[in-house]
Amino acid sequence: MTKAILPPEDLALSDILPSEPLLLMGAGPVPIPQMVANANGVVINHLGSTMNQVIDRVILMAQYAFQTRSDKIFGISGPSTAAMEMGITNLLWPGRKALVLELGIFSARFRELAEGVGADVISLKSDGLTPTSVEQVREVLEREGDIDLLTIVQGETSCGIRNIWLQEIAAVANQFGVLVVVDAVCTLTTIPLEMDDWGVDCVVTGGQKGLSSIPGVSLIAFSERAWEVVESRKTRCPHWCLDARRALNFWSLKRYHYTAPVPGILAMHEALRLICQETLAVRFKRHHESSRALQAGLEAMGLKLYVPHEYRLNSVIAIEVPTTVDIPKMLQHMISHFHVEISAAFGLSIVRIGQMGEQCRHHNLHKVLYATGMSFLGNGVSVDVANGMSRLEERLAFSRMGKR
């Protein structure tokens, strides 16, 4: 007779979490407003009149965030990659061809997803830290002639590059009848993205970054043109939960698909409501001024930013780290001494500071800049922390006075 398996020794979550909460200033997840946190603690029936009203409001407010009149907007129980996967698996299948513009790890994920559903894939990689140009895209579209879909990230979270020619590339793709799929995971509501006016056919985003909601619930929006492809496909979608036609049952027809992540959807509702209250114009300005002030402070300290100014993503700032520095040790120093957390990278000698949603508040800027400077200093890098802090305050003061 085998020995009975006994319950493990009790360990409460309160004994695992730090006594003082960390300020999350990395590439996501980001701090969330109290109203979002409160909503995430509520459970209601995932079907019925109350949830129907919540869903209708989420779609209406998401139309504003995406800048689209399409009502083919779905929440997904899963990370941002699940939203990417829904877009790809519903718009591509064997015999269709995709052009993937690669800037880093997350844009390359589109290639993996497209290959996974059996599509033909052409990958166009950027030249160093320079995004793919409009001319390069046009050349491939003209040469191939039969591309069905193009994928592009608005901002590459892994290294902090912004695709500054997104609008122009979408316009060229439209000329060739190519669907445009955009990863706006770290950019939606932090910088302009006008889905309808730019001719974008599918946009994916996550709750845990610019929207300042919780991880685990993502959003996807399909244009009417993209939806025609979804509805007219003859082959079966390889996924069940990520089948957009099945998702329509819950998000549009108010029928059962699967048990929805109710607290996460309620949290998303409150996050979108706060965005609508603030307005996109004000939100864009706040993000721009906050990120530029922080960048100025970092450079005034003597730190070097990884991406040239003209291609730099404001929502995720990449900072070069000397190869002599033990990055995990430095980041742990920041956590232990200052209760601030920023992100490492994926094989690059950089660290990343997020400037998304609630991260873009003046009190958070002061804390993360001081913690970053002191942690570099404490790990052998010569920086002028006082000069950086002074420069940050100067830039923020200019912003308060309406100056640039």
Q: Mean pLDDT, nearest integer?
A: 96
The helix-strand sequence is: HEHHEHEHEHEEEHEHEEHHHHEHEEHH
Compute the CA-based radius of gyration. 22 Å
Largest sheet: 7 strands, mixed
Low-confidence stretches: none
**Helix content range:** 40-55%
Strand content: 5-15%
- Which assembly state applies to the chains in this document? single chain
CATH topology of the largest domain, anyone? Aspartate Aminotransferase, domain 2
Structural class, please? alpha/beta
Proper CATH architecture of the largest domain: 3-Layer(aba) Sandwich
Strand order across the largest sheet: 2-10-9-8-5-3-4
What report would you give on this structure?
The protein is α/β, with parallel strands linked by helices. It has 15 helices and 13 strands. The protein has helices at residues 13-16, 34-39, 49-66, 80-91, 105-116, 134-144, 166-175, 195-198, 224-232, 244-251, 262-278, 280-301, 327-338, 362-378, 385-400; strands at residues 23-24, 73-77, 97-102, 120-125, 149-153, 155-156, 161-162, 179-183, 202-206, 217-222, 316-320, 340-341, 350-354. Strands 2-10-9-8-5-3-4 form a seven-stranded mixed β-sheet, with helices on both faces. Helix 8 links the parallel strand 8 (179-183) and strand 9. Helix 3 crosses helix 11 (262-278) and helix 4 crosses helix 5 (105-116). The chain is globular, with a radius of gyration of 22 Å. The chain starts with 12 loop residues before the first helix and ends with a helix.
